[in-house]
Amino acid sequence: MSKPFVSAEPLSTSRLDLLPLRVEDAEEMAAVLSDAALHTFIGGTPYSPEALRARYERLVAGSPDPDVTWCNWILRPLTENCLVGTVQATITRGRTGPGRGTADPGHTAEIAWVVGTRWQGRGFASEAARALVEWLAKRSVRTVVAHIHPEHLASASVAAAAGLAPTEEEQDGERRWRLDLGGDAP
Fold first, then answer.
1. I need a labelling partner for 153 at 20 to 30 A (CA). Which of 40, 75, 100, 159 fits?
2. What percent of the chain has pLDDT over 90?
3. What 3-state class would DSSP assign to 58?
4. Residues near 18 by Cβ (< 8 Å), separated by ≥ 6?
5. What's the topology of domain 11-180?
6. pLDDT of residue 105
7. CB neighbour class for 70 (10 Å; exposed up to 12, middle 13-18, buried from 19)
8. Which of 13, 37, 139 is nearest to 87 (CA)?
9. Residue 71 β-bridge partners
């Protein structure tokens, strides 16, 4: 596997540390994400600690596609010694060449977030998503997208707080939200 072209690094906001995902975080995160209500709009069921550990092992190992990088963070409030959620970005490298135009359009990032039920309603997801978008803008990302169920009003609020706007595009029952960061690709 090749080295990723972008790697998660520690980030901070006024209330949160966003720390690159580690396999060792799986047990605590399994408890944070154990509420079945978190899956109302995304489907599935909560992972057991063992299953989440296996998932984190895959995520930390990185994407097998050299043009795709997985960046994942866990969220830790500065005033609490616990984990409360995650943010992630799947970044696809901008390409040039035949059929792709001559100018590198910059990278595209698909982002997502989840905050444990106990910590919802405090603005942690919005704060983390904003920090993530700011970080992506400094890494040649030109387009940020998120896929949100049309009835998931809290997630729509997070996307809007991060600067994304809904589009008319839908995929698998979810609306595509988008932010064009513009600028010149390096």
1. 75
2. 82
3. helix
4. 10, 11, 12, 73, 74, 75, 87, 128, 131, 132
5. Aminopeptidase (3.40.630)
6. 64
7. buried
8. 13
9. 89
- pTM equals 0.91
What is the rounded CA–CA span in Å between residue 47 and residue 44?
9
Contact yes or no for 85/116 (Cβ under 8 A): yes
With cut-offs at 50, 70 and 90, classify the pLDDT of residue 184.
Answer: very low
| Gap between the Cα atoms of 40 and 52, Å rounded | 19
Average pLDDT over residues 41-53: 93
The residue type of 10 is P
Q: Please, is 110 exposed, middle or buried when counting C-beta atoms within 10 Å of its C-beta (0-12, 13-18, 19+)?
A: middle
DSSP for residue 2: P
For residue 115, with 0-12 CB atoms within 10 Å meaning exposed, 13-18 middle and 19 or more buried, which class applies?
Answer: buried
- For the chain, the distance separating the N- and C-terminal CA atoms, rounded to the nearest angstrom, is 25
What percent of the chain is predicted at pLDDT more than 70? 91
pLDDT digit string (tens) for 126-167? Answer: 999 999 999 999 998 999 999 999 999 999 999 999 999 999
Sheet containing 85-92: order of strands: 11-12, 16-20, 68-77, 85-92, 107-115, 141-148, 174-180, 165-171
